[in-house]
């Protein structure tokens, strides 16, 4: 069973929340962060991307940069740009993108639950990326940014979400990308107890997005515990900051592929070879989106094609063999185009579906790439099945939108 707790969130006063809140550290580079923070001393980038205060080209992993994060974090608190809650609370966080709205409960979740596999993952992580965030958390002694988790739908938590959302939000802001972000403070003792008990009844939580951030947060908490001779398990560092969404609220967006070169095939030869494992149907010049699982879109030579996988190319009873990324990787990228290593092969690039299929078309039309392959989005059912069976998604499978906004609430470890 899961263990979560309320916490004394550190957050900006309502009047300045729009100045403080920022995009997650890993969705932009140093130059972009420097540009977005220009003229805004309150931007959270001064903590999450402190290299922006150094000359361009400064090593963002240097001791001086991490120390600047610490100094700025202290300064934000001293100036009252981040203020600690008077009591331990939970929070409700809503995001609206177009017609889609999702609600997550902000909690402090338990390090041991991650270390013992009850917070389940579906992706591999890289040590270098983990280590960067570990240093940031270790130095600031805080989870500045939350991790993005999901849980199987729960009636009690659904009722809590509906009841809290009827009240007036503490924060209500719309960011430059058109996403609306709302945050409610949950400080009622009975509601807090209900949330805690409901989470305790869950068999697992699932990492939706941010595997490196989750690993880093848990590993630092575990490290603090091992290094404290008086450790008793009640310390704040035994928990890390998470926003937990019901599975039915989340929307996974397609994650598409672009390829340079046809592995020695002509366009006509490639289309002919695809017919062995797919029903290939010309769709003309207009952009065509995959219509369902196991249906793909190919763009090549100025034309769109529908590719529907034959039944013997997948197994929907197997969490891996039923994935469209598995089908496309085996029967198109590997078998026909000679691309066997999606992580390292320079001939392939990946484009999140948030950019639209027009991005694929333009990069092929420009001659930069030779073909585009669009996939139907992975479902939450597929993702949870992968995690529950201890399997790992192939690279570049899931793309979640909208992204969590950083700086709405922070969790201090001590």
Structural notes for this entry:
The chain is of the alpha+beta class. The chain is 31% helix and 24% strand. The chain has 13 helices and 21 strands. It has helices at 17-20, 30-37, 45-48, 63-78, 111-115, 127-140, 155-165, 189-200, 211-227, 267-274, 324-334, 357-365, 380-388, and strands at residues 4-5, 10-11, 83-84, 90-97, 100-110, 119-120, 142-143, 147-151, 171-174, 180-186, 205-209, 239-246, 252-253, 255-259, 278-284, 295-300, 303-309, 348-352, 371-374, 399-400, 411-412. Strands 1, 4, 5, 6, 8, 9, 10, 11 and 12 form a nine-stranded mixed beta sheet that branches. Helix 4 crosses helix 6 (127-140) and helix 6 (127-140) crosses helix 9 (211-227). The longest helix is centred in the middle third of the chain and has 17 residues, at 211-227. The protein is globular.
What would the average pLDDT be, to the nearest integer? 96
CA-CA gap between termini: 25 Å
Please outline the major beta sheet: 9 strands, mixed
Taking pLDDT < 50 over at least 5 consecutive residues as the criterion, the unreliable ranges are none
Shape: globular
The overall strand count is: 21
Note the beta-strand portion: 15-25%
**Share of helix, binned:** 25-40%
Number of alpha- plus pi-helical segments: 13
Task: Name the descriptors.
alpha+beta, six-stranded antiparallel β-sheet, 13 helices, globular
SSE blueprint:
Elements: E1 4-5, E2 10-11, H1 17-20, H2 30-37, H3 45-48, H4 63-78, E3 83-84, E4 90-97, E5 100-110, H5 111-115, E6 119-120, H6 127-140, E7 142-143, E8 147-151, H7 155-165, E9 171-174, E10 180-186, H8 189-200, E11 205-209, H9 211-227, E12 239-246, E13 252-253, E14 255-259, H10 267-274, E15 278-284, E16 295-300, E17 303-309, H11 324-334, E18 348-352, H12 357-365, E19 371-374, H13 380-388, E20 399-400, E21 411-412
Parallel strand pairs: 6-11, 8-12
Antiparallel strand pairs: 1-5, 2-3, 4-5, 4-10, 5-12, 7-21, 8-11, 9-10, 13-20, 14-18, 14-19, 15-17, 16-17, 16-19
Helix pairs in contact: 4-6, 6-9
